[in-house]
Amino acid sequence: MIFKGKHNHLLAAAVAAALSSAPFTSIADDGTERLIVTGSRMPVDSNQIIAQVAVIERAEIAAMQAKSIGDVLAPIAGIEIAQLGGAGQQQSIFSRGTNSNHTLILVDGVRVGSATLGYKELSTIPVQQIERIEVLKGPRAALWGSEALGGVVHIYTRRLEGGQYQLSAQTGSDSYKSLDGAVGVGYQKGSSTIALSYEDSDGFDVRDDGEDDDDGYDRWSAALRGDYALNQTVTFDWVAQLDDGSLDYDSFGVDNRQDYRNHLLMLNTRYQQGALESELTVSQSRDSQISFIDYFDYFTGDLVEDKSSFETRRTQLSSVNRYAVTPEWTITGGGDWYRDEVKATNDFTVDERDTWALFGHAAYDNQRWLAEAALRYDDVEKVDSEVTYNASFGYRFAPQFTVGVAAGHAFKAPTFNDLYYPESFGFAGNPDLKPETSDSYELLVRAHVAGIGVDASLYRTDVDDLIDGYVCDENWNCAPQNVDSATIKGGEVTATAAWFGIDHQLALSYMDATDDSTGSQLNRRPHKTAGYQANVSWRQLDVLLAYDYVGERNDAGVRLKDYQTVDLAVSYHINKSWVVRAKADNVFDENYRSAVGYNIPGAQYFISVEFANN
Description:
By secondary structure, this protein is mainly beta. It contains five helices and 33 strands. The longest helix is centred in the N-terminal third of the chain and has 11 residues. The N terminus is likely disordered. Keywords: Cell outer membrane, Ion transport, Membrane, Receptor, Signal, TonB box, Transmembrane, Transmembrane beta strand, Transport.
């Protein structure tokens, strides 16, 4: 089996204020309100969501001096990142043991990713332009639709107030250099943020069985984000972002390079009057990729310059409406429509499809009992329709001690590659594929006692109709088939505390992700992971120490050894505007492999200077 891996100006300010002092997870130090959007598609206190939620703020991203989204997500319990090379190379996210394409990626409320691959390549999203990330673990397809089996990663991009600005420059190992800046432009009824970023690195040899050369990358991004309040009840906000980059990779050729150019366009309007809130969003996202492979013809010895291209566009329209029936009861309803279009070097047998959906959500919280239910109907053109649900119940024994249970049914629609890939070398897509489905159950405990915050859960997920991409007949004609299933059982604990002037976070997880047909551990899913972070501030100095342990796991028929790494990040605040930062990744130069055939960079060192007035 192959199991692969707006916003109202005032509302945005309120969300930022509510989250500015939030710890790395959803655990509240003092029971204060913390607003998130991912759990219900409208801002809601995270304490009302019976699910594991992690929130990472811009300040935490800056403190850890992350180079990629994978760096930001890796410390979260239940999240495993498989890094196929350095920061600019492919990153796969495995949320609670599900596939790498079973985690939905959202950017400012818009689903993004390739309709041919079925996932978003995280390395193409510039971490410098991220304001906040919400991570909700467990199924949420009843609100967001396809792909949200293992969880949802919701990325919010930078937003500055008028007159604020920021500029930073960094250099380090492998000839790494980066430059990024952002400025906020204010006007009478809103503000806009203009952001630019650039990165370049010579890289290192990412594969141990390919070409003996350095695999570098470069990437840049430009974005415009803004909001405007028409009056007291109607507001608009918008996003226009372009990401462009190139990376080297190893293959059988002599010159292997991949270029990408992705964009995101979004316009949102929001109406709020009394107990009613409504949002209407129109957006378009594009993922475009060109792969170049130059190789010598075996028979003639001539140099052959070859390339292939894939481009997918997704045009979306979404409506979300929430009504507060009473202070305890809220109901939410809406609909989604999106069209996926594919253009590629080889013509697909079908190159576009529409998906439309209707959903409803109800939440109840009387300070003791809380309950939540969601139901959604998706119709995927030429594939199938699917009904998904989420249901959860919780009880607060005290304001800072909650126990809850949750269940959910989710699905993942087959990709264009799965369904319609044109016949090539004995392989072709299978238009008769069904969606992959999952059923999940969870027990959660959330508490804050004697200065220690704890989020813990036990869960089970049964995944059926998994698509094996290469099922071949006796004549070696191969096509994807719904033939696989898996059972995933696990538990995770995240604890936070502030002792002796040091902020501590401990994240532990155990997972048994099993192929039902063979009983073997699924690829790239370790049974055990552990992470610890300690953050201390003294006068103008901030120090962050991070320890990570990843247990043994399978990959491509090989048993990968467990490993542990230590990172150290130091920030020195010269004054209110200037900060000098230094980072050492993998301080002890641990030699390990994240995936079979791929090297890791070893110890790396970076230094940066930042100037900001915000």
